[in-house]
Amino acid sequence: MPSTEEIKKRLADSLDKIPSLPTTVGKVIQLANDINSSAKDILAVIQLDPVLTAKVLKLINSAFYGMPNKISLPQAVVLLGINTIKNLALSSAIVGQMGQNTVKIKTFDQDMFWKHSLGAGIAAKTICKKLKVDPKMMDEYFVAGLIHDLGKLVMALSMPMFMAKALQCAESGKLNGAESEQKVIGIDHSEVGSMLAQKWSLNEALVNSILYHHRPQEKEGQLTWVVHMANYLVHKLGYPNTGDFGDPQICNGAFAGLNLSEKELLDSLANLPEEIEKATVFLKT
């Protein structure tokens, strides 16, 4: 078995081979974060990219957003806001980038992986509503939930033999993925996912929400705590990620710390299967 440092080097080399996010998406993110830019500026950039335009329009007019009538891109920017459009572009680009890869490990269930990821995004957004987060920011939380486990996919694609052993270890020991990955490989998907997020120049809050989603007490931040809780709730509701065989895990005081009720959140997610089905549009854009 290679050393942890050798494994990290191999993973870094694999990450180097993953394409950067499309230039248009990077420009949209840059403009959305610039207080001097306008909706008109973002609209102009998106419309220069027919593929991105088609993806964003498909998402906006899907059942997931539940718009009463079909809307155009200019209408969407006005109705949904700059931040939502930015996060739609980002999430569609990330899923498009990673969703086209096929893992060659029989025990790695990609369907389960994406259902858990979409469920975590939906749960994160649900928690936001309870926290009365600014509606313009809710899609940032959805993106964080959606991509929190991407490192698992990177590991499965770049080191299938080691990941297969980690999956076997998790099943035989009734462990969750992060525990078995640390035990077998010496690094877990949260660290690998944060490395990918840094390569893509995602903002610090998103990077931290990936890196610390199993141990949010080490890096205080509402986004990280929300992703931690979303991951737990979705697992508890029957959508564990592939390779998770232990009980759902939550930090002590997580719900109390944000003045939330676990039961109330679970009740709010009663329609999770239907919501996940609607969100599969993200996998098809």
Automatic annotation (TrEMBL):
Q: Which InterPro entries match?
A: HD/PDEase_dom, HDOD, RNase_Y/CdgJ
Question: What is the top-level taxon of the source organism?
Answer: Bacteria
Q: Give every HDOD domain span.
A: 18-216
The protein's name is HDOD domain-containing protein
